[in-house]
Design brief:
With 258 residues, the chain is an alpha/beta fold. Helix content is 39%, strand content 23%. A 6-stranded mixed sheet has the order 6-7-8-3-9-10, sandwiched between helices. Strands 2-1-4-5 form a 4-stranded antiparallel sheet, with helices on one face.
Length: 258
């Protein structure tokens, strides 16, 4: 069950770059267990919102909170440790590391290791390393990647790399997961599998998911609530059915009134 501590909330968040207002008074609320979409034409400000939520950018105005804790202004690593994880529009794996090491390094963040144990290779270091690898293998089995655990991450097929990046994000044990265009570059079969995977992740890992995606079929089929941005402004919020029928949304995508 979701609690207030599991809720990521943006309150009238703005971000300007010089004279350009990229995001204007953006407000949303994602609770644990919810599946929410964030859509809009190219350049609408969607990835900027993700960058604000994860500490890559600081808001020019407004607040971002995770539960009662204000996280705008915190470092990305601090926000991740607080319970917000993300994937990227352009996949950012550790390409030269193995598949299992990509996930194990995320689990290792929870081990409380310090430089002393790492440099001296103490028993505690090896114990924690083995624990992280075991946890990573269990997660890879969930994503059907355990058979490729020892391959270089860069050698995986594109769809497998996407799944690996999601698995690595989940290994940081988030309460809120931000997925930035996870279906980009996928074929129809991979997209159908991704729809099932997103629902599974929400249910199995009890996370709230905020999804940026251009594939409208995917968004309309998996999201319970959708926010639409256009030129940094929120032009609609509603259910998939309400969004599909909204004249302002149709105009933003087609360039003419409905």
């Amino acid at each position: 069950m979701s609690t207030a501590a599991d809720t990521l909330e943006c309150q009238r968040v703005c971000r300007s770059f010089g004279g350009l207002r990229a995001v204007t008074e953006f407000t949303t609320r994602i609770a644990r267990g919810e599946l929410v979409g964030l859509i809009g034409p190219n350049g609408a400000g969607k990835t900027t919102v993700f960058n604000l939520m994860t500490g890559v950018y600081r808001p020019t105005a407004g607040e971002i909170r995770l539960g009662s804790r204000r996280i705008d202004g915190a470092l990305p690593a601090q926000i991740n440790q607080a319970g917000v994880a993300r994937t990227f529009q352009n996949i950012r794996l550790f390409g030269n590391l193995s598949v299992v090491d990509n996930v194990a390094v995320a689990f290792a963040r929870h081990g409380g290791e310090n430089l002393f144990h790492t440099i001296l290779r103490t028993p505690r270091f090896f114990r924690r390393r083995d624990e992280s690898e075991a946890q990573a293998m269990a997660l890879l089995r969930t994503f059907q990647l355990d058979g490729k655990a020892n391959l270089r991450a860069a050698s995986l097929a594109y769809g497998d790399q996407r799944r690996l990046e999601i698995a690595r994000a989940l290994a940081t044990r988030p309460r809120i997961l931000l997925l930035d265009e996870p279906a980009a570059g996928m074929n129809p079969q991979e997209k159908a599998e991704l729809m099932k995977l997103i629902r599974f992740i929400r249910d199995q890992f009890a996370v709230g998911i905020l999804l940026i995606e251009h594939d409208m079929r995917l968004v309309m089929n998996v999201c319970e609530r959708i926010t639409v941005l256009d030129h940094g402004e929120t032009i609609a919020v509603g259910t998939p059915q309400e969004i599909q029928a909204n004249p302002r949304v149709i105009e933003a995508y087609l360039g003419e009134p409905a």
